[in-house]
Amino acid sequence: MSWRSIDWSQRAEKFRTARFKSWLDRRVPPAQTIRLSHRNIFIVPTRQGFGFVLILLLILIAGINYQNALAHALAFLMLGLFLVAMLQTHRNLAGLVLSQTVPNEGVVGQKVSVAFQVQSEVGRIHDGLSFFWPTHPVFQSFRVDRHGATIYRHTIPEHRGWYQPGRVRLETVYPFGLFRAWSWLDFDSKILSYPKPVPCDNLLRQEDSEPNEGLRSSVGTDEVKALREFQDGDDQRHIHWRASAKLDRLMVKSYESRHSVSQWLRLEAMHGLPMADRLGGLVYLIAAASERGDAFGLDLKGQQLPIASGPGQERKALKRIALFDWPGY
Amino acid sequence: MTVKRSALLWMLASQGLMLAPHGLRMPVWMALGCLAIGAFTLARIQGHVKLPSKWVAIAAVFLGWGLLWQEYGSPMAVEFWVDLLLFMYTAKLLELDSKRDVSQIMLLSFFVAMTHFLFDESMLQTIMTFSGLVMVMATLIALHASATQAQGRQPLKLAGLAFLQAVPLLVILFVFFPRLSPFWTIPLERETAVTGLSDRLMLGDIHTLVQSDALAFRVNFNAQPPASRDLYWRTLVLSEISDGSWVVGSPPAPRPNTKILIPNEVIDYELLSQSMRVPFIPSLDRVLSVEGDSVSLDPLGFVRSKRVLQTVSQFQMQSALNALDAADLSKVERTAYLALPARTNPLAQAYGAALAERHPTPEARIQAVLAWYFDDFTYTLNPGPSEGDSIDHFLFEAQRGFCEHFAASFTWVMRAAGVPARVVLGYQGGAYNPSGNYIEVRQFDAHAWSEVWVQGEGWRRVDPTAFVAPERIEAGMGAAAAGMDGLMTGKAWEYFQMQSLGWLFDLQLQLQALGHLWDRIIVNYDQAQQLRWLTTVWPGLELKDLAPLALAAFLLGLAVITAGLVASPFRRGLSREARWYRGYLNCLDGVVPDQMSRGSGIARCQEIWQSARPTEAALASDFVEKFESLLYQEDQSVTPSSISKALLVLKVKLAWMRFTAWR
Question: What tens digit of pLDDT does each residue of A204-254 get?
Fold first, then answer.
């Protein structure tokens, strides 16, 4: 295909001008569900399409010069086919209803799988469709029958925070390759993307992870120390079902492993790392602490998350880091 | 290769179909080469062989070019260019790799399709070419479809459907598109000679011509066609002798004020001529008028065309049969039509002189020679070689000959006897086709006869062959040949054999009638024809009205197809209520946030709209109220048409709003 040869990332740059974007936003507004119709479908002949017209004109000229009625007929047939090709290619996109499911979170620089649900509103077969972000072109075509289809594509978050995958391109040259119809779709979706973890074990050891209120204690592993009331973020596996039934409240077993430490993870403490990697280092430490079941608190230049443990704490901490807004980070 | 196997197989099949019509015409080595490349590609698709290095392909291409140049040796031959195109069309397979290559080959197929029509414009060829193009479109579908969709005969079905959708536009444009005159003329030559009369009569020429069954022309008469013996299709007049053969020469123009006396019978007819070797069109007796593309009536009363006919052309003619001409021959004319080269055929010259002495009137001289022919001469298709002075040899030694011998010798003797005379070349008779109600003349009907000047009567047709072999004139060439079994050879003989095959011959007649209809209506559809057809529907239509009419008809056709293709799938199977609701949702696009339009109910949506655009919201709520009262409260006072109207008003208002915003 001719469009394989085009460097999509360059082309995308060209179209990322503010004027084009604002025009596109008016033309194809962001929405969770998009129905394709003549309003949001663009269509232009392909290189083959222009070649077809050139041959048509040559045949018409030859027909006129040789006064050949059937060459005239052939040229007219080609014009008819050209227009039918345009309508059929348009029709191949028209009537599609699309929506997108993105995961809630991702990591900068790592693939995130996105699912697109495609239904045919008119119950027709739509063939030879392809779906891609200009920055990650995938030219594998798919087909939508009356049961619809779910297509997976991946995107790679480029920055920390709320990452918007941007407009995805749905295009087709089916059936004849003479026309290309496409649409730029914005599903108004965003992915919370975390910085990539930067391993920094050594760093942690050197640093004085200051003991907080003498909580450093050593108790035998797997030994239930006490029961306490369930809090958000507690591991459900630790619920003490018998006690909960008796007390009519959810009670969790409180374990304390021998090496269980609670600590403050501070951004300032990461001075051994380059600026860009400090948040990544924190992500790494949070993941490590969480895996061990340690309790930890997060301190981002004074924005503090109190010490706690469990998956809820990990999620909260990661979200803080993803959305941390400070000049220079 | 990155291309689907099914697409490649479709491609090979369609390429085969596009090359087939040229198969017998192209040089044998090239046909074999194309087959070899095709077979190689098939093996490659099946995975048996690999693509050769590009040097092999380049060598093959240069070899092909060289051989083609060797074959034709002239860039002016149409065949050279066509075969070059066909060769490249096939050789492209040697570098076939990507989808784009397949696309390119398929686009080239359309050009190849055009070359079919340069050689053959018959209905059968058209059907074959168009079927081949359906296959080409199927290839393109298989190329771009997913594997599921490209299975089996599915692409062919879809391509056929697209063809049917394109045909209405083809018909509209074919009827209405203004036919332009050629922009420039390229004097390309045909390598394969067209069979037909030539502009000189060498003894033996017509004899080879009558072995061909090629179609010469067909004629439709407005009334009952004349009897076969009266159908003398005059094509060329040969009035000079040069190097022992009769040639057209440059006869003096007759006086312009020659008057026709007693036009016995005036007939109108339409002649559809195939391509000819000479720029002369056959016509009957005395032509009164002729209409057609660049033809004129020359002073001798023959129909001339400006250039040699390359394609099928149609002419409307009017002729007077058995007309008498009271004018005198001028002195210059008399000299020209009596001129004979000195010192050739002395015996014939002496015989003529003796004839003039013995019989005082030209009439008696004519009858005397014809009587001699009747008594002593034999009509044969196999006259044997002529020697020395060919007229003398024929008259006094062989006495066996063909129409050309009789006409040439008769005219010679007449001139020697002092009677102005000339040879006429043309066709005689023709077969009546009852299915199509026309007369069909083939090359084996070629004939030569004489015209002699008789005072008070004008040029009188004298056909010496009619005296020697009356069956040739009465019943046509087939009957004459049947009496001389085996003497006629070639295609013409096969054609006559067919006649004895009863129903098969009838079928052939029907097919020929269909072909004739095709030629008249389709192949010959030129400017004159177009105007004639369209003025029967719109009297008073002029040439300049044609372009806007064509455009209007085309747009109308396009609108119908668009409506059929784009609009209907949305509407098909939807109830009236669903259509209204869909229309309303369409209006919401871009006005109300998307998630509101679905699932949140019409009322909530209305609120948002109210705050965003109060003016349009009033129109919208008018629609919504009517819609709901019909649907949920079954209010009989609300008519469906008022709902449609409310929706239409809303749509128009929004369209206007968008238009002003856009400006």
Answer: 544 444 444 334 433 334 445 567 777 766 667 677 777 777 777 777 776
Q: Looking at beta carbons, which residues of chain B come within 8 Å of A85?
A: 162
The structure tokens 């009033």 sit at B618
- The residue out of B454, B475, B498 marking a domain boundary is B498
Task: Tell me the per-residue pLDDT of A121-141, one tens digit each, with 9 for 90 and over.
Answer: 877 889 989 888 877 777 778
Instruction: Decide if B451 is inside a domain.
Output: yes
Backbone angles phi, psi at B401, to 5 degrees: -165, -175
Residue A124 corresponds to which amino acid?
R
- Chain A CB contacts of B526 under 8 Å are 67, 69
Identify which of B598, B579, B575 has the alpha carbon closest to the alpha carbon of residue B644: B579
Please answer yes or no on whether B144 and A74 come within 8 Å at the CB atom: no
Look at the block and give the residue holding tokens 């009419």: B549
Determine which of A270-274, B221-225, B378-382, B624-628 has the lowest per-residue pLDDT on average: A270-274
d(CA A223, CA A237): 15
**Contact indicator for B295, B315 with CB cutoff of 8 Å:** yes
| Distances in whole angstroms, Cα of residue B100 to Cα of each of A1, A143, A263, B92, B134 | 6, 21, 63, 12, 19
Q: Chain A window 144-183: which residues touch B at a Cβ cutoff of 8 Å?
A: 173-178
Q: Is position B433 within any domain?
A: yes
A79/B114 Cβ within 8 A: no
Q: Do B183 and A65 touch (CB under 8 A)?
A: yes
Backbone φ, ψ for residue A113 (5° rounding): -85, 130
Whether residues B348 and B439 fall in one domain: yes
Are B117 and B125 in contact by the 8 Å Cβ rule? The answer is yes
> How far, in whole angstroms, is CA A192 from its chain's centroid?
9
Distance CA B491, CA A284 (A): 94
Instruction: Quote the tokens at residue B507.
Output: 């079928």
ipTM field = 0.76
Q: Where are the domains of chain A?
A: 2-194, 195-216+261-329, 227-258
CA-to-CA distance for B573 and B596, rounded, in angstroms? 26
Indicate if B223 and B360 belong to the same structural domain: yes
Give the largest CA-CA distance in chain B: 122
Number of domains making up chain B: 3
Which of A26, A74, A174 has the CB atom closest to B145's CB atom? A174
pLDDT band at residue B186 using 50, 70 and 90 as cut-offs: low
**DSSP string covering B383-437:** -----SSHHHHIIIII-EE-HHHHHHHHHHHHHHTT--EEEEEEEE--EEETTTT
Beta bridge partners of B445: none
Peptide bond into A175 cis (omega under 30): yes
Residue B338 to residues B31, B96, B227, B411, Cα–Cα distance (Å): 55, 71, 33, 10
Residue in B with minimal Cα distance to A95: B570
Nearest CA in chain B to A29: B590
Same domain membership, residue B211 and residue B139: no
Sheet holding B283-284, edge to edge: B283-284, B232-238, B421-428, B446-454, B458-462
Phi, psi angles (nearest 5°) of residue A163: -100, 125
Please count the helices (runs of H) and the strands (runs of E) in chain A. 8, 17
Same domain, yes or no: B354 and B462: yes
pLDDT level of residue B451 (50, 70, 90 thresholds): very high
Structural domain containing residue B59: 5-144
Inform me whether the C-beta atom of residue B364 falls under 8 Å from chain A C-beta atoms.
no
Tell me how crowded residue B514 is: count the other CB atoms within 10 A of its CB: 15
> Alpha carbon A204 to chain centroid distance?
33
Same domain? B138 vs B210? no
Q: Which residues pair with B269 in a beta bridge?
A: B221, B317
Residues B227 and B118 in one domain: no
